[in-house]
Amino acid sequence: MQKYLTIYHDLVKKIEANHWDESSMLPSENDLVKMYTTSRETIRKALNLLAQDGYIQKVRGKGSVIIDANKFDFPVSGIVSFKELAKKLNLPASTIVHELTIVEAGQDLKSKLNVSLREPVWKVLRVRNIAGEKVILDKDFFNKDVVPALTKEICEDSVYSYLENELELDISFAKKEIVIEDPTEEDRTLLDLEGYSNVVVIKSMVYLDDTSLFQYTESRHRPDKFKFVDFARRVKN
């Protein structure tokens, strides 16, 4: 077995045995070089594999943080509001509304929200605070024909609750895409990224039960706080 794989497996064994505390730092590259009597390149290969497999998160200027195995479960297959998620997590949570405006749909939004060019749409920019840390940035766009009015109070509470209970709309299904992206300046300004080098982005197109598309959202997550879970059932051919 190549040496970097031997080192990788040994580090995995130590991490899973709680040799180091969760959310603490792995030994530095220099210390690992001495510990395993090998080259820096070999250590970097092992660390890259640990990062790919979700054991560590490389933080610029700090080193490698051991990822907490008890991350918050974020259901990928369901359509869950932040208020419902926070209640399930049973943690103190709040929403900060940074922007609530009406914008004209450009070419990008035209295709993502299925509206006409320059048609007015709601733009809602919200930061989600969980247990004292700003860990999610939600960028939502709503078709104004479907959602004629929004207020800061509604956006701080739950837009979905307002749509379902006040407007009596039936939210039915969503198409989702999960990607890893470099943080934008907006991410770095509004989230407590603490040097993390990427964010997990869930892009969703959400439909009513009559199949009309009414929402496009980008939910941008700090990578160390969530694991994205799904339920799958095999169907025999």
From TrEMBL:
InterPro entries according to UniProt: Bact_HTH_transcr_reg (IPR050679), Chorismate_lyase_/UTRA_dom_sf (IPR028978), TreR (IPR012770), Tscrpt_reg_HTH_GntR (IPR000524), UTRA (IPR011663), WH-like_DNA-bd_sf (IPR036388), WH_DNA-bd_sf (IPR036390)
Molecular function as annotated in GO: DNA binding; DNA-binding transcription factor activity
UniProt cross-references to SMART domains, sorted A to Z: HTH_GNTR (SM00345), UTRA (SM00866)
Pfam families the record matches: GntR, UTRA
GO biological process, one term: negative regulation of DNA-templated transcription
Swiss-Prot/TrEMBL keywords: DNA-binding, Repressor, Transcription, Transcription regulation
PROSITE patterns: HTH_GNTR (PS50949)
Record bears the keyword Transcription regulation: yes
Keyword Ribosomal protein attached: no
Domain HTH gntR-type span(s) in chain numbering: 1-69
Name of the protein: Trehalose operon repressor
Native organism taxonomy: Bacteria, Bacillati, Bacillota, Bacilli, Bacillales
